[in-house]
Amino acid sequence: MKIGALEAGGTKMVLGVYDMEGKELERISIPTESPEITMPAMIDFFDSHQVDALGIGSFGPVDLRKESPTYGYITSTPKLKWRNYPFMPQLIRNRKIPVGFDTDVNAAAIAEAELGVARGCEDVVYVTVGTGIGAGIIVHGQTVHGLLHPELGHLLLRIHPDDPIPQGVCPYHGACLEGLAAGPALGARVGGDARDLPDDHPSFAIEAYYLAQMCVNITLTLSPEKIVLGGGVMQRQSLLAMVRAETMRLLNGYLQVELITNHIDQYIVTPALYPVSGLVGSYLLGKRALEQSARGSL
Ligand code: ADP
Ligand code: ZN
User: Whose CA is nearest to atom 20 of ligand 1?
Assistant: First the structure.
């Protein structure tokens, strides 16, 4: 049995094939262009490997309601060619195989909770801080969908008093979390690319303030056992310690929980599977779908 996995991103698609034990047999990456160009390439890949099931972790927003006529569609994305696109149905159009479908960040959260840094945790939040900010949320072992799915990247925050671009860059909200703290916001703040900044650049104190507010809000609303911070911006090692310290400062001793007061380094962590958390999670979605369909046909 072979499981196909797809981590569908706004800039690239990462496709993998796994055996049932989770061994990666092949992985390719192709740029996300229009559906006319990108879809046939992906269908060919999974067809040529004769996968028995498929797991998809997708950029969004997506329709995750199984009973919906547009289940598996990408919905109101600003990427116009993918807007209201029947993504999952088109991918399995030729071969009716079991399919698991969730957001890219929920897939990453599943991977970290099952095989990565949050192994054994029932309640986990995985946040990617990259070109955008998004979060996958697991509560009682289940990914949260709710009405749509969480869009934590657009939380509203307090502005840092020294922020040179307090208006933010989100096209919808200006100064939301993503508009203040994703990679492009960091870049806009310094008039360049965030990758080129030295670790001690003052913009990182501002960045840590925003990411710490996010961690506080996550802690207070969802009470997870771990917050996993991934994505390109978190590749800046020095930032993690700043976010932990700032989270403690903002909580100001309110939560007397051993893990937070004495072991914040085990509470706010970086992913073990980065950069393939989302792909591995997609594999797990596919595997679960296969197992579920096998149980159903007994
Ligand atoms: P995507 O979100 O598109 O999948 P990434 O997670 O790799 O991609 O995030 C890309 C963003 O992360 C860019 O805005 C980039 O400037 C920023 N970034 C990458 N590495 C660093 C770094 N070491 N320090 C600060 N920002 C970084
Ligand atoms: Zn926003």
Answer: 232
